[in-house]
Design goal:
Layout lengths: L1 E3 L7 E3 L3 H10 L3 E9 L4 E18 L21 E12 L9 E14 L4 E4 L6 E10 L3 E10 L36 H7 L9 H10 L27 H6 L11 H14 L4 H15 L4 H9 L3 H4 L7 H10 L3 H9 L1 H12 L5 H23 L7 H11 L3 H13 L1 H5 L24 H27 L2 H15 L4 H9 L2 H10 L7 H14 L8 H8 L10 H16 L1 H9 L8 H18 L4 H13 L3 H19 L10 H21 L7 H24 L5 H20 L12 H10 L10 H15 L10 H8 L4 H10 L2 H15 L5 H20 L6 H23 L4 H10 L1 H17 L1 E2 L1 H12 L6 H17 L10 H7 L7 H17 L6 H16 L4 H4 E3 L3 H14 L5 H10 L1 E3 L9 E2 L8 H8 L27 H4 L37 E3 L5 E4 L2
Parallel strand pairs: 10-13, 11-12
Antiparallel strand pairs: 1-2, 3-9, 4-7, 4-8, 4-9, 5-6, 5-8, 14-15
Organism: Psilocybe cyanescens
Protein name: Virilizer N-terminal domain-containing protein
C-alpha cells in the first residue's frame, strides 16, 4: 500500500497501482537515504539524520523480507504483523536565500501524523514540499521492532551544473484490467464470486444458496449455529388446521431441490382452501407468500400461481399499498412477472385501479412501481437479444431491481438459474471494453454491445456482495478481505465505479462496511472498508441514502485510511443530506470562496441532489421555490445561474492558453459534473419560472463557456476518464437547455423574447478577458448556434418565428459574428441562414451586402500608398478571405443559384459587386481564390449586367495570361465579347488585357491545344470586326514577329477551312510597337504570418503628435481648430469677456475688453475652465 500527503506530515493512503507508481516516480524522483532496523523502547524509537533531508517516502518491510536484491544478507524484522504508528517529523523550515546568504530558521516543532501498517510491504509517500525538511523522525506505537527504508534527498548537497538536454516526457500507458477480475468481458460473469467462495474454511455453499440466504430468505440468528447449516429446509407437510399466516411462515426456509411436485401441489391446495375468510388478509398473505416464493425454485411459484385466481384475490376491495408492495417484491422473479403479464384480467384490473382517480395516492404510487417492474422485465428480456431494444427502460428496470436486497437477490437467482436469460448475455467480443456508467442521469443511449457489457458487469459485481456478506457472517477473514479488495479494485476503475457504488448502497452491505472499520489493531479488511466508504461518500446520490448517512455519522477512529480532513468532509456531506432541503438551500445561497475547492463542489453537488430529489415529487418545483424564498428570501433560478457562471469561469482557467502547471482532473471532473447537475435543475425550472434578461444573459454566457470547455476536455483527456464522460454529458445538456429556453411561448419577465437575448449573447462573444483560445471559442459558439437555430423553414413550427421576430433584431450581431468565422464556416453559416430565411426577410442578401462593403473598403485602403506595411498585410488577408468566401458561395450547389441571383438581380448588390471587381482589376490582385471565383463567374456571365460582364471578361483574360496551359482558359471570352454592348466596353483596358494575353500565348504557342486556338481566333475575329474603333483593331504589348508567329501556329493547329480567317485577321489588325509595361501583381497569401512585435504595434494605440495649425484663410468651420466669429457677435451682451487664470473668487469679475482685441488669438486660450465645485478640472498648456 502507498500513502501520500498534501501538507507536511499529512499522509493519505492510495493504492500501489502501476499508474500511480509511475506518476509518483516521474514527479518525485528519490534515492535511498538509509535503512533502519529500529527497536522500541517504551513504544518509542527515533531516526536522526546528520544533515537536513527532505523525505519522499517511508517503506516498511515484513519479517523475513529481503528489501535489497544486491544485499541478500539484509533481512527485515517487523513485530507485530499489524499496528498503528504515530510518526513525528521535526519541522526544519528552509527559506529562500536573500542577499546571497542562506537563512534558515530552525524550530523545535513536530509535525505529527499516523500510519496504519496492515502487513506486507507498504510504502507511505510523504510530500514535504520545498519549504520544509527534517533531521529527526520519531516513531511511537505498539510495536517491538520495525524495519524501515527512508527515501528522499539531502538538501545540503548542491546539484552539479549540467548542460540542459531536452527530453520528451514519458507517457504512461493505461493497463487493462486482468481478465480474471473482469466480468464485463467474461463469458462467466460469476467466476470471481465462485472463486472467492473457495476461500471459505468449511465446504462453501453454492453461489445460488449464498445469494438466496443473504438477500432473500434471511435465516434467523440461531440458524447460523445449528448443525447442518446452511442445509436447513422448509417442510411443506404442515398440520391441516394451520391458518394462512402459519402456512406462509412455514416456507421461510429454502425448499429442497428434490421435493416432488405432488408435495408442492398439496401445499398449494391448502393455501387455496384457506382463502375466503377475509379478502384483505387473503390478498396480503398470498402476496407475501408469492414474494417468498420469488426466491425459491421455479416449480414452487408456478404451482402456487396455478391455484390462485388473481383477479378474484387482488381487486379494488382487497388491495392496499402494503399488499401491492408484496406483489412488487414477487415480480422480482421473471416467471412470476410473466404469469402476471399473461393474466389479462388481472392486468386490466391493476391498470384500471392505477388510473382510477378515486384510488388512494399511496396505492397508485405502489401500483405504478408494480407496473413499471412488470413492463421492465419485458423490455429487459427483449433488449438482451434485440439490437434496437428499449435500452433506456431496461436500464431503469435494472437500477430499480438492484436497489433493495430482496429484489436484487431474486434477480441474481433468475440470472443464475434461468438458462434463457443467461444464454442471452451474448458472446464476448475480442476487443475488451469497460462498461459505460449507464446508471447516471442523462446518459446517451448505448449500443447493444455496450448494454450487454453493462449487464454482465452488473451481474458479476452483484454476485460478489453475497459472498462478502457470507464471509463476514461466518468470520472468515481471508475471503472477506479478498472480496473487499476486489470491490476496491473495481471502485477505482471507470465504469465499474458507478456499479460498485450503487450496489454498496444496499442496507446490509453499508452496515457491514461500517462494522469492518472498527478494527484495532488495523486489518486489511478494515482498510478496504474505509476506502470503499470514502469512494461512496463522493457520490452525491449515494449520500442521500439514510443508511449511508447514519454510517458516516457513526464512524469513529482510529482509522487506517480515512484522514481527518476526509472525515470532516464526509460528516459535512452527511449532515447536509440528513437535514434535507433547508440545509441544501443554505449551502446554495452561501457565498463560496473562489476558485471552488473539491470539498465545496461536493457539498454543492449533494445540495443539488437534494433539490433534484425534491422536484421529482408532484408540485416539487413549487415547493422548492417557496422554500428558497421562505428560508433566504431569494429566487432559486438566479442563485443557480450565479453558481453556474462561477463554475464556468473556474473551468475556463483549466483550459487556458497559459495552462496550469498540472491539470487537476479530479477538480475538472467535479466542475463538469456540478455544472451538469445545475443545468438539469435549471431545465426543470425555466419552463415554469422564466428568467429576467440579466440572468438569461448570464446563463447563456455560462453555457457557452461550458460547451467550449467540454470540447477542450474531450480532446485533451482520455476517452475513458471520468472527466471526459462528464464533458460528453455537458455537450448533450447545453444545447437542450438553450432550446428549452427558446420556445416561442417562453418570455422573460421584462417582455423581450428569450431567443433574441440568447442569440444576441452568443453572437457577441466577450473575448476581452478570455483566457482560453478565442478561435476555439468562436468555433464552439458557431456549433452551439447551429444546434440552437431551427434546421429549415418547413421542418419546424418555430422557424418562421425565428425568421420574423428574432433575426431582424440581431442583424448587426450577425454581421460581426460572420466576420469572426473562417471563409469555409462563414459560407456554410450563410447557406444555413438563407435556407432558413427562405426569402422572407432577405437575411442572406443583407449579409452579402455587408461582406462586399467590407471588401470594397479593404481594397480602397489597400490602394493607399501611405498604408502601414503590417496593416497592409492584414488588409491583403482580409481581401483573400472575402474572395474565398464569395468563391465558396458560388461553388456550392446549395448556395450557387441564390448567390448568382442575388449578385445579378439585386441592383444594390450588383452595383457593389461591380465596384469590387473594378477595384480588384485596378489593384492587379492575384490569388487562387480569385482565379476560382472568376471561373464560376465566367460560366454564368450572361446573368449579370453588361458592366459586370465586362469586368468578368477582363478577369478571365488575366487568368488566361497567368496560366495559358489551362484547357478552358478562353472558352467564355468570345461569348462574353459578343454579348457586350459598345457602351459597356472600355477600349483602352480591353486592348491592354488582350495584348498581354496574346503576348503570353505567343510565348507558349507550341503547347497550345485546338480548343484554346479556336477561342483565341474567335477573339481576334471579334477585334477585326471593330473597324470603327482604331483602339480595338490595334494590338499593343506584342511585336509583329510575335503576332505573326502566333498566326502561323494557329494555322498549323486549326483545320484548313480556318486558314482564310487567320489571314484575314492578320491583315485587318495592326500592331503598336510601343512597349506596354506590365503591371506589378499583388499576390495574396492564403495565410497571415506576422511577427509578434508587428502584431503588438498594430494593436497599440497611436501616440498623439501635436502640430501647429497651418496658416491660411481662417474660414469658419464647425470642426476647425480656429473659429473667427464676426465682430458683431462678440459685441453682444452674451459675450462680454473671456476666461483667464483666477485667484480665489476673482473669476466672478469678468474683464471688459474692446472688440478689436477679441479676434487676435490663433490658438485656444491657455487659461483654465473652473469646475463645478470651484475645482480646476482641465488645463490647456
Amino acid at each position: 500500500m502507498t500513502r501520500t500527503d498534501r501538507q507536511i506530515g499529512e499522509l493519505e493512503r492510495i493504492s500501489a497501482s502501476p499508474s500511480s507508481a509511475f506518476l509518483y516516480e516521474l514527479l518525485c524522483p528519490m534515492r535511498l537515504l538509509g535503512w533502519y532496523q529500529i527497536d522500541s523502547r517504551e513504544n518509542t524509537a527515533a531516526i536522526l539524520f546528520p544533515a537536513p533531508v527532505r523525505v519522499s517516502s517511508i517503506r516498511v518491510f515484513p519479517t523475513g523480507a529481503q528489501p535489497f536484491s544486491q544485499s541478500p544478507e539484509v533481512v527485515a524484522l517487523t513485530i507485530p504483523d499489524t499496528f498503528f504508528l504515530d510518526v513525528y517529523f521535526n519541522a526544519y523550515s528552509v527559506q529562500p536565500s536573500q542577499d546571497s546568504q542562506d537563512k534558515r530558521t530552525v524550530k523545535n516543532a513536530l509535525a505529527p501524523t499516523r500510519i496504519a501498517y496492515v502487513g506486507g510491504q507498504a510504502e507511505f509517500i510523504v510530500e514535504m514540499g520545498h519549504e520544509y525538511a527534517t533531521r529527526l523522525i520519531i516513531f511511537h506505537g505498539e510495536f517491538k521492532s520495525v524495519f524501515v527504508a527512508i527515501y528522499g534527498d539531502d538538501i545540503t548537497e548542491k546539484p552539479e551544473a549540467s548542460t540542459y538536454e531536452p527530453k520528451s516526457l514519458p507517457v504512461p500507458t493505461s493497463m487493462s484490467i486482468s481478465s480474471s477480475v473482469d466480468p464485463a468481458n467474461s463469458p462467466n460473469p460469476t467466476l470471481v464470486a465462485e472463486q472467492l467462495l473457495l476461500l471459505l474454511d468449511e465446504p462453501p455453499p453454492s453461489l445460488s444458496v449464498a445469494t438466496r440466504l443473504i438477500f432473500s430468505l434471511k435465516p434467523e440468528k440461531y440458524d447460523w449455529d445449528l448443525p447442518g447449516f446452511p442445509d436447513l429446509y422448509a417442510e411443506l407437510d404442515v398440520p391441516e388446521d394451520d391458518d394462512l399466516e402459519k402456512l406462509v411462515k412455514s416456507v421461510g426456509r429454502p425448499i429442497r431441490d428434490d421435493i416432488s411436485s405432488e408435495a408442492i401441489t398439496r401445499f398449494a391446495e391448502k393455501i387455496h382452501d384457506t382463502l375466503g375468510a377475509n379478502s384483505s388478509d387473503d390478498a396480503y398473505y398470498t402476496a407475501k407468500l408469492l414474494g417468498i416464493s420469488a426466491s425459491q425454485q421455479t416449480r414452487f411459484s408456478r404451482i402456487l400461481l396455478e391455484h390462485l385466481d388473481l383477479p378474484e384475490v387482488y381487486n379494488e376491495e382487497s388491495l392496499d399499498d402494503t399488499t401491492v408492495y408484496c406483489l412488487w417484491d414477487a415480480a422480482s422473479n421473471i416467471e412470476i412477472a410473466k404469469y402476471f403479464l399473461e393474466d389479462r384480467n388481472f392486468m386490466l384490473g391493476i391498470e384500471e385501479l392505477h388510473t382510477n382517480p378515486r384510488t388512494d395516492k399511496s396505492i397508485q404510487k405502489a401500483l405504478k412501481k408494480l407496473l413499471s417492474r412488470l413492463r421492465g422485465w419485458q423490455a429487459f428480456e427483449d433488449a438482451l437479444t434485440n439490437p434496437r431494444g428499449d435500452f433506456a427502460s431496461s436500464i431503469a428496470f435494472l437500477k430499480d431491481i438492484t436497489t433493495t436486497e430482496h429484489s436484487i437477490g431474486c434477480w441474481l437467482e433468475c440470472m443464475m438459474t434461468n438458462g434463457a436469460l443467461a444464454n442471452k448475455l451474448g458472446e464476448v467480443l475480442q476487443n475488451r471494453s469497460l462498461p459505460f456508467p449507464l446508471f447516471q442521469e442523462q446518459q446517451a443511449t448505448p449500443s447493444h454491445e455496450e448494454f450487454l457489457t453493462f449487464v454482465r458487469t452488473l451481474f458479476g459485481v452483484s454476485t460478489v456482495l453475497p459472498v462478502l456478506a457470507w464471509a463476514d457472517s461466518v468470520g472468515n477473514s481471508p475471503c472477506r478481505e479478498r472480496a473487499l479488495a476486489v470491490l476496491v479494485l473495481w471502485q477505482g476503475i471507470d465504469g465499474y465505479r458507478e456499479i460498485v457504488n450503487h450496489c454498496l448502497l444496499l442496507r446490509q452491505i453499508t452496515k457491514r462496511l461500517q462494522w469492518n472499520t472498527r478494527e484495532d489493531p488495523p486489518m486489511k479488511g478494515g482498510m478496504f472498508a474505509e476506502r470503499l466508504l470514502i469512494g461512496l461518500a463522493k457520490d452525491p446520490q449515494a449520500m442521500l441514502r439514510e443508511d449511508l448517512i447514519v454510517t458516516v455519522l457513526e464512524l469513529k477512529g482510529p482509522f487506517s485510511c480515512i484522514e481527518t480532513e476526509e472525515l470532516m468532509e464526509m460528516e459535512k456531506l452527511a449532515r447536509v443530506a440528513r437535514d434535507g432541503l433547508p440545509s441544501a438551500i443554505e449551502e446554495l445561497t452561501y457565498t463560496s470562496v473562489r476558485p471552488f475547492s473539491l470539498r465545496r463542489l461536493r457539498v454543492l453537488r449533494v445540495s443539488m441532489a437534494i433539490i433534484a430529489n425534491e422536484i421529482s415529487y408532484e408540485d416539487g418545483e413549487l415547493e422548492v421555490a417557496k422554500s428558497f424564498w421562505t428560508e433566504r428570501s431569494q429566487a432559486i433560478l438566479p442563485t443557480l445561474v450565479s453558481i453556474l457562471y462561477d463554475i464556468s469561469d473556474d473551468l475556463n482557467h483549466h483550459f487556458a492558453l497559459q495552462p496550469l502547471p498540472r491539470m487537476n482532473q479530479a477538480l475538472t471532473d467535479l466542475l463538469l459534473r456540478a455544472a451538469g447537475d445545475i443545468l438539469h435543475i435549471i431545465g426543470r425550472f425555466v419552463m415554469i419560472y422564466p428568467l429576467i434578461n440579466r440572468d438569461l444573459r448570464t446563463l447563456t454566457l455560462a453555457i457557452a463557456d461550458l460547451y467550449a470547455c467540454s470540447d477542450a476536455a474531450i480532446s485533451m483527456l482520455s476517452q475513458l476518464s471520468v472527466a471526459c464522460l462528464a464533458a460528453q454529458n455537458i455537450r448533450r445538456i447545453c444545447p437542450n437547455v438553450l432550446r428549452s429556453l427558446t420556445m416561442p411561448d417562453l418570455h422573460p419577465e421584462s417582455g423581450f423574447i428569450a431567443p433574441r437575448i440568447i442569440l444576441r449573447t452568443l453572437l457577441n462573444p466577450y473575448l476581452q478577458k478570455a483566457v482560453r483560445d478565442p478561435i476555439h471559442h468562436i468555433t464552439q459558439l458557431y456549433d452551439l448556434i447551429d444546434k440552437l437555430v431551427p434546421q429549415n423553414h418547413t421542418s419546424e413550427v418555430s422557424a418562421s418565428y425565428w425568421v420574423a421576430d428574432v433575426f431582424p433584431k440581431v442583424l448587426t450581431e450577425f454581421k460581426s459574428f460572420c466576420n469572426l468565422l473562417d471563409p469555409e464556416t462563414r459560407s456554410v453559416f450563410v447557406q444555413r441562414l438563407v435556407i432558413l430565411d427562405n426569402g422572407e426577410i432577405g437575411l442572406g442578401e443583407w449579409l452579402l451586402v455587408e461582406e462586399l462593403r467590407e471588401l470594397s473598403n479593404a481594397l480602397h485602403n489597400l490602394s493607399n500608398p501611405a498604408v502601414d506595411v503590417n496593416y497592409g498585410l492584414v488588409l491583403q488577408y482580409q481581401v483573400f478571405n472575402s474572395l474565398h468566401f464569395c468563391q465558396l458561395l458560388l461553388s456550392s450547389p446549395a448556395s450557387m443559384d441564390w448567390a448568382l441571383l442575388s449578385l445579378s438581380a439585386n441592383e444594390d448588390l450588383s452595383q457593389l459587386f461591380d465596384n469590387c471587381l473594378t477595384l480588384i482589376l485596378d489593384s492587379n490582385i492575384s490569388a487562387l481564390a480569385l482565379t476560382r471565383l472568376t471561373r464560376q463567374l465566367a460560366k454564368h456571365a450572361s446573368q449579370f449586367s453588361p458592366d459586370v460582364r465586362f469586368n468578368i471578361l477582363l478577369l478571365v483574360l488575366r487568368n488566361a495570361e497567368t496560366d495559358p496551359s489551362v484547357v478552358d482558359a478562353l472558352d467564355f471570352v468570345p461569348s462574353i465579347l459578343h454579348s457586350l454592348p459598345s457602351t459597356s466596353i472600355s477600349p483602352e483596358r480591353l486592348r491592354n488585357e488582350i495584348g498581354r494575353m496574346i503576348c503570353t500565348y505567343s510565348d507558349h504557342a507550341s503547347s497550345m491545344d485546338a480548343d484554346n486556338a479556336e477561342m483565341l481566333l474567335q477573339t481576334l475575329e471579334w477585334l477585326a470586326l471593330k473597324e470603327e474603333d482604331v483602339k480595338l483593331t490595334t494590338l499593343v504589348g506584342v511585336s509583329r514577329e510575335e503576332f505573326h508567329y502566333l498566326c502561323i501556329t494557329l494555322a498549323s493547329i486549326l483545320s484548313p477551312p480556318r486558314q482564310e480567317a487567320i489571314a484575314s485577321v492578320e491583315a485587318k489588325l495592326s500592331i503598336d510597337e510601343d512597349e506596354l509595361f506590365p503591371q506589378s501583381k499583388l499576390e495574396l497569401a492564403d495565410t497571415l504570418t506576422m511577427p509578434l512585435g508587428s502584431v503588438e504595434d498594430l494593436l497599440s494605440p497611436r501616440p498623439f503628435e501635436p502640430s501647429t495649425p497651418k496658416s491660411g484663410n481662417k474660414t469658419p468651420d464647425i470642426l476647425g481648430v480656429v473659429i473667427s466669429p464676426p465682430t458683431a457677435l462678440l459685441r453682444s451682451p452674451a459675450a462680454t469677456g473671456l476666461t483667464k487664470t483666477y485667484i480665489n473668487n476673482d473669476f466672478r469679475q469678468l474683464r471688459q475688453v474692446s472688440s478689436t482685441r477679441l479676434n487676435t488669438s490663433r490658438l485656444p486660450s491657455t487659461h483654465v475652465d473652473v469646475g463645478i465645485n470651484g475645482r480646476s478640472d482641465l488645463s490647456f498648456h
